[in-house]
Structure formats: structure tokens, C-alpha cells
Amino acid sequence: MNVRLRPITSDDFSTIVRWSEDREFCLAIDWSVDLSRAQVEEWWTRILSDPGDDFLRLGVERGGQLVGYVDLAQQDRQVGRAEFGIAIGERRLWAQGLGIEAGQLMLHHGFHHLGLTRVTAQVHRPNVRSLALMRRLGFREEGLLRRHALYQGGVCDVVIFGLLQNEFDADRCK
Ligand SMILES: CC(C)(COP(=O)(O)OP(=O)(O)OC[C@H]1O[C@@H](n2cnc3c(N)ncnc32)[C@H](O)[C@@H]1OP(=O)(O)O)[C@@H](O)C(=O)NCCC(=O)NCCS
Fold first, then answer.
1. Which residue ranges does the record assign to the N-acetyltransferase domain (predicted)?
2. Ligand 1 atom closest to 94 (CA)
3. What is the pLDDT of residues 65-96, one digit of tens each?
4. 24, 51, 118, 133: which has the fewest Cβ within 10 Å?
5. Which string of b and e fits 106-126 if b means at least 16 CB within 10 Å?
6. Any idea what the CATH number is for the domain that residue 72 is in?
7. What is the pLDDT at residue 1?
8. Domain count of the chain?
9. How far apart are CA 38 and CA 42, in angstroms?
10. Domain residues for 147?
11. Which long-range contacts (C-beta less than 8 Å, at least 24 apart) are formed by 140-144?
């Protein structure tokens, strides 16, 4: 196990500001490029201080360093559903399996500690890394929103993914 999940604090802001200065990362995750340090810190302060009952964001730590984060957003406890999100902010660490590990940890947390039975994800179709990651995590394609969103300067389709708890558990037992 290379990564662990933990809360994000203001001590992590300098790391997150560094990610926000990486143009390729910003374009991939759809963050505004060229935000000032103050704007990034203000935005993250708001998310951390008032996340809302239905939103969980945890940091992804590797070797004592924050390298990304994972989300379970729009949690609906009655239905047992939430929306998954992920970013590995340290781009030099992409394609080394961290996304898969962090994603599996967060999905396990959602299914086995938060009482979720279904997790969804939405991915801009040109974001091939993220599409590959969702499939690798066991998500199934459930639909396509055609010409639905702005991404990297153009209008694109958005792929809808879904994963049920029993599918996640069965996958882990293989
Ligand atoms: C998407 C993201 C989280 C993936 O993280 P990662 O640590 O690089 O992912 P992993 O190394 O665990 O690889 C996951 C899968 O991605 C695929 N992948 C890796 N590099 C790839 C590339 N250059 N092109 C296409 N697919 C690639 C691999 O197929 C891998 O599956 P495999 O092990 O079966 O080969 C990361 O690229 C990222 O943070 N991107 C910006 C933010 C973002 O797009 N978030 C998702 C929004 S929906």
C-alpha cells in the first residue's frame, strides 16, 4: 500500500497552490489557470471550513506528502448514493497506480463506512486518463451526455459511470 487518506488542512495550501501553478494539471482537471495564491487559498479555505453534510474530501498522502485528493460529493444517505471525484496533483506521479489505490480506498470507505450502495462519476470524454481510471476501478458506463460541457476550450460529451457496492466487493475478491 503506497497511499493513505487523511484530512486536508491549511498546512497543505502551499502544496495545493503549487498544483494550481501547473498548467497541464489545471487543464486536465478543469481548474482556472493563472489563479493567484490568495484566490486558491480562499477557495480551499471555504471548502474545508464549510464542506456541507453531503460532501467529503480527503487528501491522498504518499510518503508523508500530500499528492492529491478524493471526493464523495452530493451524498444522498436515503438512497445510499454519492458522486466520486479524484485528482493526483503531483503530475510527475501520474501513471504509477496512485489513482487506482486512492480511488479504491475512498470507494471502500464510502461503501463500508458511509453506508453507500451506489457511486457515480462523470468524466469529460477527452479526459482519457480519467476514463481509463474509472474503468479500472470497476465503474460501468451508464450513459453519455452529448455536447454537455465546456472542457479545454471546446464543448464535449460527458460520460456517466456507476458502480454498485456488490460489484465493487466482487471485484476486490477476484
Ligand atoms: C485521472 C488521474 C486521477 C489518474 O491518476 P493516476 O495516478 O495517473 O492513475 P493510475 O496510475 O492509477 O492509472 C489509472 C489508469 O489510467 C490509465 N492511464 C495512465 N496513463 C495514461 C495515459 N497517458 N493515457 C491514457 N490512460 C492512462 C492506465 O490505463 C491506468 O490503468 P491500468 O493500470 O489498467 O493501465 C490523474 O491523471 C489526474 O489527477 N488527472 C487530473 C485530474 C482529473 O482528470 N481528475 C478526474 C476528473 S473526472
1. 3-166
2. 8
3. 999 999 999 999 999 999 999 999 999 999 99
4. 24
5. bbebbbeeeebebbbbbbbbe
6. 3.40.630.30
7. 72
8. 1
9. 6
10. 3-173
11. 140/167
